[in-house]
Amino acid sequence: KEELYAKFSKCEFWIPKVQFLGHVIESQGIHVDPTKIESVKDWATPKSPTEIRQFLGLTGYYRRFIEGFSKIAKPMTKLTQKKVKFGWGDKQEAAFQLLKQKLCSAPILALPKGSKDFIVYCDASNKGLGAVLMQREKVISYASRQLKIHEKNYTTHDLELGAVVFALKI
């Protein structure tokens, strides 16, 4: 029904490493392209909500490599809200430096093999939801998000269930 054509002269086969959309994919797994995150090392401290959004946009693209991304980024994310006065403090600076450090030393994530033996670990707190997808004791991906306003009133049981639903939707 759907036909896909490839021009043989434009194809490459059996190459050991591929750079694709800011990632490097090789036999060991997938990791952040070092050339893309070089600018993160020297990123200056944000001085406005717009600069925070720019930084979080870049680091957010690689959030699957950073365990607890949403929890770490929360102090910075709060400063991007319209009704919050911008005030960069120690919490924001610590979050900023930690995100830079974690991104620059991001792990190599395993590539899924087949469709068996997947395990999803979920967790919830009054700050956010988190999940880790694993296969054969290797991390495939991390996922996290902050709680929405109405979710802050949920019971622990409902938050844990929400974390499971969040993990399975990814």
Automatic annotation (TrEMBL):
Cross-referenced SUPFAM superfamilies: DNA/RNA polymerases
PANTHER family for this protein: ENZYMATIC POLYPROTEIN-RELATED (PTHR34072), RIBONUCLEASE H (PTHR34072:SF52)
Organism: Tanacetum cinerariifolium
This protein's record includes keyword Transferase: yes
Species classification: Eukaryota, Viridiplantae, Streptophyta, Embryophyta, Tracheophyta
InterPro entries cross-referenced by the UniProt entry: DNA/RNA_pol_sf, Rev_trsase/Diguanyl_cyclase, RT_RNaseH_2
Protein name, entry field: Putative reverse transcriptase domain-containing protein
GO MF annotation terms: RNA-directed DNA polymerase activity
Keyword annotations: Nucleotidyltransferase, RNA-directed DNA polymerase, Transferase
Domain Reverse transcriptase/retrotransposon-derived protein RNase H-like: 88-169
